[in-house]
Design brief:
With about 290 residues, the protein is mainly α. The chain is about 75% helix and about 5% strand.
Length: about 290
């Protein structure tokens, strides 16, 4: 296991510990986890830019350290409930995701199911794709379906969001159904689009620039534009829409979201860095 992977899992385990410890220790422990989490992704910036060639993830990694370190500081300084709710959501997401990442047969099963469904969808469009293991080939162009291609991370995110909110069971079930299953279905659409676009070379846009940046063959340009640009943008838009629907079903989340967004307003950042307390947007309902 690579050093950065070790750092990631150490940070996640500390975050889980912070979510379950008594309040006396919870905020400080969770803050340590978020600091390590941000550092891990910040150090991954060169990999996402130079190896993965993923613009969106590169930007996220650049922002990881300042955002997580600032929020960790506020968490310790003010013991802000909204940040602990985020920590609990992250802990539930981690617990959901962990088996798929580290129990090989379970992760392989999910990858296999996703590969089979994606292949069937591409064939249904009339394209003669074939599969060998988890690699789908169309017109000689191969796309490997890995765990990240199953949308397990995004599904885990919404399992965490739904799981950390106190609300009637029927609304929690509705929020789950409009997020997790929908994300998986949309991910199949995403995979189908990428395989079809790459296999049929739909986006041979600026291939020389892509070759110079990535070192790949000119044909890779279609994969780059389909996967790293269009699919990533579409996924982000879909997550925003799904988040809106979930918030509509679980308005309890809106209080916490508004409070967190208030923390990143420039004048409130200045106040926090001066050691002043920023008032919560709306008094939070603390239950239990």
């Amino acid at each position: 296991m690579k050093f950065l992977d070790i750092m990631l899992w150490v940070s996640l385990l500390i975050i889980v510990a912070g979510a379950v410890l008594p309040k006396k220790y919870a905020y400080k422990v969770a803050a340590v986890g978020w600091v390590l989490f941000g550092l891990r992704w910040g150090l991954s910036t060169p990999e996402f830019y130079l190896v993965e060639h993923n613009i969106m993830y590169t930007v996220a990694c650049v922002l990881a350290i300042p955002v997580t370190w600032y929020l960790a500081y506020v968490m310790v300084k003010d013991e802000r409930e909204s940040l602990m709710v985020v920590t609990r959501a992250a802990a539930i997401s981690i617990i959901f995701y962990f088996p798929f990442a580290y129990i090989s047969w379970l992760g392989d099963w999910l990858i296999g199911v996703t590969t089979s469904i994606t292949l069937a969808a591409v064939n249904a469009l009339g394209y003669p794709a074939t599969a060998s293991g988890n690699i789908i080939t169309l017109n000689g162009h191969k796309v490997e379906i890995i765990l990240a291609c199953t949308a397990i991370q995004s599904m885990a995110l919404f399992v965490g969001i739904v799981g950390c909110i106190k609300a009637p069971l029927d609304r929690l079930f509705k929020a789950f159904m409009v997020s997790v299953p929908v994300i998986y279905i949309l991910n199949i659409v995403r995979n189908t689009f990428v395989v079809s676009a790459y296999g049929n070379q739909w986006f041979q846009i600026a291939p020389d620039m892509i070759v110079q940046w990535t070192g790949e063959l000119p044909s890779y340009a279609s994969f780059f534009w389909a996967h790293n640009v269009l699919a990533e943008t579409g996924s982000l838009i879909a997550l925003v829409i799904i988040s809106y629907v979930v918030i509509s079903i679980l308005p309890e989340t809106l209080t916490y979201i508004r409070d967190i967004f208030s923390l990143i307003e420039l004048h409130n950042i200045k106040k926090n860095l001066r050691g002043e307390k920023v008032a919560e947007v709306v008094p939070l309902q603390r239950k239990g």
